[in-house]
Amino acid sequence: MKRSKKLIGAAAMLLLIIAVVGVFIYDSKSYYPPLPRGMEGIGKKEVLQAVHDSRDGLSPIHTNEKAEWFGFHGNQGDGGKYLIAKMEEQGWVFKEQMGGGYIFQDAEQRQRVVESEMWTRKYVMFEVFK
After folding, report:
1. Which spans are transmembrane here (predicted)?
2. Which of 63, 84, 100, 104 has the most C-beta neighbours closer than 10 Å?
3. Are 86 and 57 in contact (CB under 8 A)?
4. 68-to-2, 29, 31 alpha-carbon distances in Å
5. C-alpha span between 130 and 116 (Å, rounded)
6. 125-129 average pLDDT score
7. What's the CA gap between 75 and 31, in Å, rounded?
8. Whole-angstrom Cα distance, residue 31 to residue 35?
9. Cα-based distances in Å from 27 to 16, 30, 40, 44, 66
10. pLDDT, tens digit, for every residue of 105-126?
């Protein structure tokens, strides 16, 4: 009888540990792949929240001294259309797409490059270089 109580106690403790670890993993979104390079200082949870808060196009996610990051919930083709529309609103004319990169030009012939990366199968990250 004493042994079965110890076994039940150990099983309950193991289940509790598994539950706590599971909640931590789910809450921190650590099961998602690493964020693209250049997005240091922001967590996966914040990125997902920003993208889900704005389902109507590109969501601003992060800014550093080199670039601005935007996220899109969907495929790369649809995200590219939103990107082109956003850049054209800011006075940049779409010139060409080279793989996952987009090249824009303004009236003064300056160029701006945007790189895209599928973060997961549902999310695209766009790095708009300054």
Report:
1. 7-26
2. 104
3. yes
4. 63, 23, 25
5. 15
6. 95
7. 20
8. 12
9. 16, 8, 19, 10, 30
10. 999 999 999 999 999 999 999 9
